[in-house]
Each structure stands twice: as structure tokens, then as C-alpha cells.
Design goal:
By secondary structure, this protein is mostly beta strands. About 0% of the residues lie in helices and about 70% in strands.
């Protein structure tokens, strides 16, 4: 059912006051390399079109072997020449709701500017929601996004499209996180995560502080890391976990082989295990096949004490081989009980 004004056709205008449709089926076909065009086509409408209200109910979209159902789509907007303005685009389904406004020019690189609010319900019932703004074209898009559920996360950055691929540079920041898990609860009063790359390879810089409810004795937990993943190789250039004055530093590479170098500097073990005093330093090296690496462990402690037990010094060295050829030494000076 539709209500259209034809009289304005004499002035090259079409006004659609109302359009209602039901039970629409759409099929999205994948295009091959030969179907791709080098340049985007310029679309210039010979008449101006305005839609005051359009509603489509019960939409079925076939995308390959998958079928997606949309309960309702509401639209209002207008088009003149190559300029399209969306005043309202509301999509409602059982899993996803989207409300979008914006505009696009159907020429050159299709410059566009739009804002959208969305809400997604995952199969397990978890709800996600956010607010997205984007401005750019098919060469580069600047985005800003605020995730509002299940936690508050602000994202800004840009996405560039080059040579049939894309590259993202995104900065994520949060002021407070309170995330419940089945066995615990994660809290963070602030942090940042910078991402660069795409699904083929990425680099990440993380800086955050964390508090776990099931380990209330651990306070002041902070994590920093520089991580990259390219062509099946995961690399940690600098990874630090700090709990008070205690630090664990990790660097390594993981693919079919594992190379890992970790150092632990613990001047305040009481922050990790209440009641323990003294200091401890350790170094762990792993090298070899990722499922059976060789290990080298060096440990030195001074003035360690816990309850009725104390030592002046502790030194341990272990060489562990994947073939079972192991060697372990342990030296303890002045053990008191």
C-alpha cells in the first residue's frame, strides 16, 4: 500500500507520503573478482524524491546459506541528484535494533556522515549497546563510538581502505569497568587500548589497572603490553604486570615455535601473599616447540619469611628439557622453623 503525489512530477519532484510493505524476501549474492569495478559509479537521479514514511514488515534476507529475519524497517528521507539524506532508518529484529540518521553523496568516493544507536542481544542473552558516529568515504572513515552496555568504552580513530584491504587505527579508553564473571568480578578504574591493523595482522598497546573480587588481597594491579600478530606469529615486545612495587616482564614470540623470556622482580611479596616478607627475583626462559619447549629457571630470594619459617637466602636453578633430561639445584641458607 502506498500514497504518492504525482502532480509534483511536472516539476521533477516525487513525494511519497506513505509506503507499507509486508513479507519481503531479499537475496544477497556474492560477487567474484570479475564483477568488481575499479571506480564507484556516479548516481544522478533525474528527479527529486522525498519519503515521508515507509514501513516494511517481516523481511527475510538470504545471505549465502544463512537467513536473517527482520521484524520491521521504518524509513524517512529524501534524495536530490546524487545527494541522499536519511532522516530516519529504524531496523528492528529479535537480535539487533538500529536507529540511523545521516547523509551520503553518490559520486566520487561516496562521502558520508552518519550517526547510529544500536542494541544487540547475543544468543546467551548478554546485551550490548552503543552509539556510533562516522564521517568519511570509501578511502578513509573517521569514527567515534561509545559502548554503553555491558560497560562504558569510548573509541575514536580511523579506518583506511587500500588495495582491496583495510587498516584500522583505533584508540579505546575507559574510566570505569565493573564486569561480572561466573566466578569473579573484574573492576578497573581506567585504562587504554590502542589497536592498529586488521584481521590479518595487528599491533596493540594496553595500559590498565585491574581489581579481581576473588583476590581482594591483590591491590594496585596494572598491566602494560605491546603486542602484535602477523602471518600466524604472535609477538610480545614489552609486557609488564605490576602489583604495587612488584613487576613481571615478558617478551617473546609464538608460532610453531615458542621463545619466551620472563623476569620477576618482587621486592614486596606481601602484596601477593599476605604475611610473606623479604624479596625475590626470578627469570624464566622457554624455547622450542610450542607444545614441548625447553625451560630454564633461575630464582634468588633474600630474607624470605612466612609465619614461623624464615631463610637468609634461597637460590634455585632448573634446566628442564622436553626429552626429560632435567637438572635442578636448590641452595637454602639459614632455614629457621
Amino acid at each position: 500500500r502506498f500514497d504518492i503525489e504525482l502532480l509534483p512530477l511536472f516539476s521533477s519532484n516525487v513525494a511519497i507520503n506513505r509506503l507499507d510493505a509486508d513479507a519481503l524476501q531479499a537475496f544477497v549474492l556474492e560477487s567474484g573478482e570479475a564483477d568488481r569495478e575499479e571506480e564507484l559509479p556516479t548516481i544522478q537521479l533525474p528527479v527529486s524524491i522525498s519519503v515521508a514514511r515507509a514501513t516494511i514488515r517481516n523481511v527475510s534476507i538470504q545471505l549465502g546459506p544463512d537467513t536473517h529475519a527482520i521484524n520491521r524497517i521504518d524509513f524517512a528521507g529524501n534524495a536530490r541528484g546524487s545527494n541522499v539524506r536519511v532522516r530516519t532508518l529504524a531496523v528492528r529484529s529479535d537480535q539487533l535494533d538500529v536507529d540511523l540518521v545521516g547523509q551520503v553523496q553518490l559520486r566520487n568516493l561516496y562521502p558520508a556522515d552518519f550517526q547510529a544507536n544500536w542494541r544487540l542481544t547475543l544468543p546467551d542473552g548478554q546485551k550490548l549497546a552503543g552509539e556510533l558516529g562516522a564521517k568519511g568515504d570509501f578511502q578513509e572513515i573517521a569514527i567515534r563510538h561509545n559502548l554503553t552496555e555491558p560497560l562504558a568504552l569510548a573509541t575514536t580513530g580511523r579506518i583506511r581502505f587500500e588495495s582491496d584491504d583495510w587498516l584500522a587505527e583505533l584508540e579505546n579508553q575507559w574510566k570505569a569497568i565493573d564486569w561480572a564473571f561466573p566466578e569473579s568480578r573484574l573492576r578497573s578504574s581506567g585504562g587504554s587500548l590502542a589497536l592498529r591493523g586488521n584481521i590479518k595482522g595487528f599491533a596493540a598497546d594496553l595500559d590498565t589497572n585491574v581489581q579481581l573480587d576473588d583476590r581482594p588481597e591483590i591491590k594496585g594491579l596494572r598491566a602494560k603490553a605491546n603486542i602484535s600478530y602477523v602471518d600466524g606469529t604472535l609477538k610480545v615486545d614489552q609486557g609488564d604486570i605490576l602489583i604495587g612495587n612488584n613487576r613481571a616482564s615478558v617478551a617473546g614470540v609464538l608460532n610453531d615455535l615458542l621463545v619466551l623470556d620472563a623476569t620477576l622482580t618482587i621486592p614486596d611479596p606481601n602484596a601477593l601473599v599476605p604475611g610473606v616478607t623479604g624479596s625475590l627475583e626470578a627469570r624464566v626462559r622457554l624455547k622450542g616447540q610450542k607444545d614441548q619447549p625447553n625451560a630454564s629457571i633461575e630464582l634468588n630470594g633474600a630474607g624470605l619469611a612466612w609465619g614461623d619459617y624464615s631463610t637468609k637466602s634461597v637460590a634455585a636453578n632448573a634446566q628442564l628439557s622436553a626429552n626429560g633430561d632435567n637438572a635442578v639445584t636448590l641452595d637454602i641458607e639459614q632455614l629457621l622453623m
